[in-house]
Amino acid sequence: SSGINAEYGEVEGVLLKYGVISEHHLYQDLERWDTMYVAGRLHKPVMFLHQDPSFQDQYLKLNLRSALHAAIILLPERFSALQLFCVISHLSYAGDVRMKLGGENPNKVRNIVEPNLTHFTSLYEEVITESPFLERTDYGYLARPRNHRTLRQLHKMVPHKLLAVDPDNLDGPDNRAFRFDRNVDPAFQLYRKVASGDLRFFDEEIRKCVRTASILQPIRGFITAGPLKSARYSLAKFAKSRQGKKGRRKEETLPAVVDKERPMTDEYTEMYARNMVLRNPVERMNLVILLVFCGGFSIYVSVRFGS
Q1: Of 81, 4, 109, 91, which Cα lies nearest the Cα of 43?
Q2: HSE on the CB side for 287, CA within 13 Å?
Q3: pLDDT digits (tens, 9 = 90+) for 173-194
Q4: Are 241 and 276 in contact (CB under 8 A)?
Q5: How confident is the model over 19-38, as pLDDT tens digits?
């Protein structure tokens, strides 16, 4: 559970979405990325109306540090500031079913980063300066060469679950595809795989953070805000999505593994950021059916009980 109750309200005729969250759930999400519902929003520049200095120094900075080092793992060794912040911004959209179902503008990451590049630079200045894994160059940034030792250190800079293998579940459905050898430390094997460019495990763990919340939150919206406000908000989202698709060139879906030998051009970064989950058409259809059913049930509950 994200611990957030989402609501909709109007301010001077503009429909706004807002949420209320307990401090406990807020701190958990920033530290562990339970859902990234709040942590993902705070990966980007935001305006604070009121701020506790201890919150900024501890939890907010921890969340930014995690985002920076997760992006370092995903990016090749040389990258620009634009590429870095595009990948950071994409973290909270990986696994979001709305991106595949047409509920979000496909250019959203670019639209967030490009006009706010100065704000991103300012937001991440301190954690970039403090990171032992980055150095600035004329091109942008140079990351330390990745090997299993570097990955072991990077693991301490991101939420633990992103690079954690359950040794008792090596043959489970989540790990079977990675063919872990039971005679070798699974953590060592995973570090070696990621260092060699096989990012599937890491990528999927990030998606898991977002996937469930992205399904449940719209359903909660139907229940807490009512079907009419939720429908207006959803229709506005779909309208933005359709507008974003106009004039968009046809693109290939990239594999989850980033080609570290290929220069990380801006176009390549953008395509990588659109490599969303749910590549299987059957899986997409199952989710559509689930969302339609849950949405219909939520409307029934709202009408039946007068919420």
Answers
A1: 91
A2: 21
A3: 777 777 888 888 989 999 999 9
A4: no
A5: 788 889 999 999 999 989 89
